[in-house]
Amino acid sequence: MIEKEMVVQEFSEELTLTRKVLMGVPADQLDWTPHEKSMSLGQLATHLAQLPGWTGPVLQESGLNLAELDEEALAPRSQGPKGILELFDKLAADAQKALEKVRESAMEDPWTLQSGETEIFTRPRWAVFRQVVMNHIVHHRAQLGLYLRLLDLPVPPTYGPTADHPQG
Prior knowledge:
Blueprint: H1 4-22, H2 41-50, H3 55-60, E1 63-65, H4 71-74, H5 80-101, E2 110-115, E3 118-124, H6 125-150
Parallel strand pairs: 1-2
Antiparallel strand pairs: 2-3
Helix pairs in contact: 1-5, 1-6, 2-5, 2-6
C-alpha cells in the first residue's frame, strides 16, 4: 500500500517546480522549435500545462479509451505565457484537490488504458498516476528546460542548481 500523504507532498513539489519552469517561457519565442519533428516552444509549454488535467480521469475513472478522445480538442495550442500559466494553475489546483480526496485504498484499484477494443495496459491506479501524470510532467518539464537553454534563456533550478542559478 502506498502512503497517500507522501504522494500528495511529492506531487505538490513537482507542480511547484513545473510552474517555475513555465514562468520562463518567453512570449516572443512561442513558435520556435529546435527541430522540424519537435513541438514548438508554445505547444510544449501548453502540453506541459495540460498534464495535471489527467489526474481526475486517472483517480476517478476505471480507465480511458483513446479511441473516444477528441484529439483535436486535446491538441496543445499556445495561449501565450500568461494563458499557459493560468491553464496550469487551474488544472494543478483541480489535480491536487482530486488527489487529496481519493481514498488511499482506491489507489490500488486497476485502471485500464485501451484503444478501441485493444487493451494497452491495466495497472494499479497509483502506478498510472505516477507514470501518466507525474513522470510525464517531469519528462516534458526537462524538455522545456532544454528548449530554454537552446534559446540561451535562464533555466530555473528544479532538483538542484543550474548554470543560471548556481545556488539553486
